[in-house]
């Protein structure tokens, strides 16, 4: 280990990137240039993952170096393979196994799509979990070529599945399919039921207008090259099966000696420090705490970004023996993209519908194309300012 003390951030997603930037901001504010900040990620990109359902992914990645280098954060590229809190070391794969020590760690490796061990799913299924997977799906759709009809089965009626299904008729038509068929299936009786009773009729109206068929109360038993077989024995013939059913925290959360919740997340306190550990923080989809004192944080960039800012800031303060800042967010919104039909905007944990259609779409596009991006001008001060450990106000609601 070098003589300089090191803060190591694992992951370059929403929580990881903002952790590193916030640490850089606090390092400067406290005049602690002897602290080295390192971000370790398996690609050179910050992926705007929540846009992976879209047809055009050209603007959904930001080069990490463009944001990290101006503020003096060192980037390492490699796949994290192990964590040892006793020795404060991380192992990663980068042209062979490497080891890196830390004085404070921010674990922000995010979440992964839940992939059950269904026959044929790994060989024949598609998803939008990563940029690479989303590109593979889009290239497959484009490769269908001009044909009279083609069916896409989307499995999973949560937010990701709904957004993927809502975009799919347009993708198929753009590929030359004159009669596209899109089926959205879920084990719940009604598609979108997790969004609340008030939201379900809006979702159903939008999907009907887009020509997306809804199949609630079904489970997939197997997938093959020609479609899927349901648990009931029914067949849905489809050239494309897109799996969007559930998320879990990164499996390396199991390397840390603490109990995890049902999603595999690590328990943290309001300072984002992992409960029971001395030098380790966690942020984003791998972490869980009552973000407003009552409700657990959710796997979303809405919570991942502020969790990252506070974790990075607090890692520096903890290392220097300075007071840390607790995170609390007393508002919650959900903005669901519904393709050409528009979007759905809800407020509160009871998800009260406050905007829909093209009005809500304006909010969704502001979030997806502006609000969740880091400053891209390369300006050092703008990047540091954006990393302040504060909670943004709710997204704008257009009238």
> What is the name of the CATH class of the largest domain?
Alpha Beta
What is the architecture of the largest domain at the second tier of CATH? 3-Layer(bba) Sandwich
CATH-assigned homologous superfamily of the largest domain: FAD/NAD(P)-binding domain
Topology-level CATH name of the largest domain: FAD/NAD(P)-binding domain
Poorly predicted regions are none
The pLDDT mean sits at 96
Morphology: globular
Q: In angstroms, what separates the terminal alpha carbons?
A: 56 Å
- Most strands sheet: 5 strands, parallel
Query: What is Rg?
Result: 22 Å
What class would the helix/strand composition place it in? alpha/beta
- List the total number of helices: 9
Q: Percent of residues in beta strands?
A: 25-35%
- Order of strands, main sheet, comes to 5-2-1-9-21
How many domains is the backbone divided into? 2
Oligomer: single chain
* Helix coverage percent: 25-40%
Topology, number of strands: 25
Overview of the molecule:
It is built from 9 helices and 25 strands. The chain is α/β, with parallel strands linked by helices. It has 2 domains: 6-112 and 247-329, FAD/NAD(P)-binding domain (3-Layer(bba) Sandwich), CATH 3.50.50; 115-243, FAD/NAD(P)-binding domain. Helix 1 (14-29) links the parallel strand 1 and strand 2 (36-41). The mean pLDDT is 96.
Looking at this protein, list some descriptive labels.
alpha/beta, FAD/NAD(P)-binding domain, 5-stranded parallel β-sheet, 25 strands, 27% helix
Please give the structural blueprint:
Blueprint: E1 6-10, H1 14-29, E2 36-41, E3 45-47, E4 61-63, H2 64-68, E5 74-77, E6 79-84, E7 89-93, E8 97-101, E9 104-107, E10 111-113, H3 121-124, E11 125-126, H4 131-143, E12 147-155, H5 159-175, E13 177-185, H6 200-210, E14 212-215, E15 220-224, E16 227-230, E17 235-237, E18 240-243, E19 247-249, E20 266-267, E21 280-282, E22 287-288, H7 301-320, E23 333-337, E24 343-347, E25 352-356, H8 357-371, H9 380-386
Parallel strand pairs: 1-2, 1-9, 2-5, 9-21, 11-18, 12-13, 12-18, 13-14, 20-22
Antiparallel strand pairs: 3-4, 6-7, 7-8, 10-19, 15-16, 16-17, 23-24, 24-25
């Amino acid at each position: 280990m070098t003589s300089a003390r090191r803060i190591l951030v694992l992951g370059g997603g929403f929580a990881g990137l903002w952790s590193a930037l916030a640490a850089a901001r606090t390092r400067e504010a406290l005049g602690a240039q002897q602290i080295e900040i390192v971000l370790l990620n398996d690609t050179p990109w910050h992926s705007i993952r929540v846009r992976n359902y879209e047809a055009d992914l050209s603007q959904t990645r930001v080069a990490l170096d463009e944001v990290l280098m101006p503020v003096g954060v060192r980037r390492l590229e490699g796949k994290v393979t192990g964590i040892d809190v006793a020795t404060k070391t991380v192992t990663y794969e980068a042209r062979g196994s490497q080891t890196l020590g830390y004085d404070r760690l921010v674990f922000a490796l995010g979440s992964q799509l839940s992939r059950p061990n269904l026959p044929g799913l790994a060989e024949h299924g598609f998803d939008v979990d990563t940029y690479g997977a989303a590109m593979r799906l889009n290239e497959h759709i484009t490769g269908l070529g001009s044909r009279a009809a083609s069916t896409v089965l989307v499995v999973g009626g949560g937010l990701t599945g709904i957004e993927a299904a809502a975009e799919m008729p347009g993708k198929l038509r753009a590929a030359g399919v004159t009669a596209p068929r899109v089926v959205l299936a879920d084990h719940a009786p009604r598609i979108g039921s997790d969004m609340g009773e008030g939201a379900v009729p809006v979702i159903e109206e939008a999907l009907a207008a887009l020509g997306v068929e809804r199949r609630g109360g079904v489970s997939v038993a197997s997938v093959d090259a020609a479609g899927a077989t349901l648990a009931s024995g029914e067949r849905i013939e489809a050239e494309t099966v897109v799996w969007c059913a559930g998320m879990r925290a990164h499996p390396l959360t199991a390397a840390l000696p603490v109990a995890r919740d049902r999603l595999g997340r690590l328990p943290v306190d309001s300072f984002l420090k992992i409960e029971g550990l001395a030098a380790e923080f966690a942020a984003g989809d791998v972490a869980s705490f009552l973000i407003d004192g009552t409700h657990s944080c959710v796997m979303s960039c809405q919570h991942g970004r502020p969790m990252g800012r506070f974790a990075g800031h607090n890692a520096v303060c903890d290392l220097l023996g300075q007071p840390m800042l607790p995170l609390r967010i007393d508002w919650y919104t959900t903005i669901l993209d519904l393709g050409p039909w528009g979007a759905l905007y809800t407020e509160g944990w009871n998800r009260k519908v406050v905007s829909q259609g093209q009005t809500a779409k304006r909010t969704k596009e502001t979030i997806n194309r502006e609000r969740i991006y880091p400053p891209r001008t390369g300006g050092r001060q703008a990047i540091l300012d954006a990393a302040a450990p504060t909670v943004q106000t709710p997204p704008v609601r257009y009238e």
